[in-house]
Write a structure and sequence with these properties.
alpha+beta, 14 helices, extended
């Protein structure tokens, strides 16, 4: 998350706590799809150089929520670092994708004063531990074991169960389901089936918890804009109301007219629409590629859903934080008029109990060197090294005593002294003294020639001129063959230079380039938004 500039002042104004008489803190919840928890630019909990733990704690403290639920963490257990997982004043819980690395994943951070009594990964119960699980799975006979495992293998659900105290002093149980629901890719029909089956399993688990007497909150990225008011372009979408994801939400959510405790109608309420039923352009997700956030051209797919009685009796407000940057989503949240009763001990799923963070993970050296043999091993190594050094000294001394001296070896081999090669020979000296040089006739004075420096300069000038002529010839040749890149076209609506994009969707046009308006995406009625100009780039 970017913490410079005007982000935190806006967040601080939005995060002002509501307090009830007696200075008892209300329960504040925040959900955020952070699109990568480790990304330095997009990840919300980015680790600055120096102290990653302090950065994470500072951001969580700025959010000022008792429970922070994060989606799309894109982190697996093997790359989870201690500064990110262990934060002072908080206890954290992670659900990892078991099918792909750097994909999906959710995490829940709870303040120590809101520590849960139970925590569990997944909706099916297949990943539940013997101690500290939430339980209440409902009837899942319609699912096969392989299907249940596939639905939970992507790390899309995390449950924490808390004890709360109402304004009347009654102690209740609250289960928070942090979910990152699948996206239905139009080009992959099997993903739509996967999404609907995930919805079904989520509903079965939530209703089973309600039937067991627990209050339930479902919050996170549901990946469906429920009503036309929640979508920027619902009017131009075919069969908007007939979308199967919206049909499922119709069966899950009650109308605002439903009364608390009523047994008629769906069991859950969209808390934001309960307080803001007619607020338009209340979006939580925008396209980064098209720059749609500049003109608030997005969708509302992040929710805080609560059971009917809980929302009507205890919810004080439900809000969005669209000014908080750091992801293609913005945080959403709610404030409840209840206080949390912290557990005496965190459940086993808490990351501080993982072997790699609890200090109980075995090191590889323990398997290679027995601890009780370490002193003996050191003595043997020292003794062996000392013995080796003594042997080396003895060998060197033996070589010195047996090696012949140079003068002795030279006398035996009749080797000449080195200076003998530099003394003139007697025959050469006699010949050179009797040698007479012939008389040479007088030669006319030579013609004045250029100095070596002048010759070198002349040669360099000649070579440079030749290279220049060759380069100009090559340039003219390639200009005649290649016309160069075509100029960028202007869009039809604004007569401004277009931007070039590449088709990344699988199909016959995969990899092709095209031009489109460079302005951010927005409503068609807004003249400052992107026009509908489109032009394929001609192949080179």
């Amino acid at each position: 998350m970017r913490v410079e500039g005007g982000v935190w002042p806006i967040l601080e104004r939005s995060a002002t706590r509501l307090k009830r008489p007696g200075s008892l803190r209300m329960l504040r919840l925040i959900s955020w799809n952070i699109n990568g928890i480790r990304s330095p630019q997009q990840g919300a909990l980015c680790q600055e150089p120096g102290n990653g733990a302090m950065t994470t704690k500072r951001i969580l403290d700025k959010l000022d929520a008792d429970v922070v639920c994060l989606q799309e963490t894109k982190v697996t257990r093997d790359v989870l670092t201690e500064p990110l997982a262990i934060v002072e004043g908080y206890n954290s819980y992670f659900s990892f994708s078991r099918s792909r690395s750097g994909y999906s994943g959710v995490a829940t951070f709870c303040k120590d004063n809101a520590a849960p009594v139970a925590a569990e990964e997944g909706l099916s119960g297949l990943f539940a531990t013997q101690n500290g699980n939430v339980g209440c799975y409902g009837n899942t006979d319609e699912f096969t074991l392989e299907e249940l495992r596939a639905l939970d293998n992507e790390g899309r659900a995390l449950l924490t169960q808390h004890k709360i105290c109402t304004l009347e002093g009654k102690e209740k149980t609250l289960t928070i389901i942090n979910v990152y629901c699948p996206h239905a890719d139009p080009g992959k029909p099997e993903r739509l089936t996967f999404k609907l089956r995930f919805y079904r399993l989520l509903q079965i688990r939530a209703e089973a918890l309600l039937a067991a007497g627990s209050h339930v909150i479902i919050l996170g990225d549901l990946n469906t804009a429920h009503r036309p008011i929640d979508h920027c372009d619902a009017a131009n979408l075919e069969c908007f109301e007939e979308d199967p994801g919206r049909k499922w939400m119709d069966g899950l959510l009650s109308n605002q007219e439903c009364q608390a405790g009523s047994q008629v109608g769906p069991p859950f309420i969209d808390s934001f629409r309960y307080f803001q039923p007619k607020q338009e352009k209340a979006f939580t997700c925008w396209s980064v590629i098209s720059g749609a956030r500049h003109l608030n051209y997005g969708t509302r797919i992040d929710y805080v859903l609560g059971d009917r009685t809980l929302v009507i009796d205890t919810f004080q407000t439900s809000f969005l934080l669209p000014k908080v940057m750091g992801s293609d989503h913005c945080p959403v949240g709610a404030v409840l008029n209840v206080s949390s009763i912290p557990a005496k001990q965190c459940p086993p799923l808490c990351t501080r109990f993982l072997p790699e963070f609890a200090g109980t993970q075995l090191k590889i050296l323990r398997f290679l060197v027995p601890l009780e043999q370490e002193p003996v091993l050191e003595q043997s190594v020292i003794h062996f090294s000392n013995q080796s050094q003594v042997q080396k000294r003895q060998k060197k001394a033996l070589v010195r005593t047996t090696r012949p001296r140079p003068d002795q070896a030279g006398s035996r081999r009749n080797q000449k002294d080195l200076m003998s090669y530099f003394q003139p020979s007697s025959s050469h000296s006699q010949t050179s003294s009797n040698l007479k040089l012939p008389h040479l006739p007088a030669v006319a004075p030579p013609v004045i020639q250029k100095t070596p420096e002048e010759e070198v300069m002349a040669k360099m000038v000649e070579e440079q001129a030749k290279a220049k002529d060759e380069k100009e010839g090559q340039t003219l040749f390639w200009k005649s063959v290649l016309g160069g890149p075509s100029p960028v076209p202007l869009c039809g609506g604004h007569k401004e230079p277009c931007v070039m994009r590449t088709v990344k969707k699988s199909g016959p046009n995969l990899g092709r380039h095209f031009y489109m308006c460079a302005r951010p995406q927005g409503p068609p009625s807004d003249p400052s938004s992107r026009c509908n100009f489109f032009l394929w780039r001609k192949p080179s």
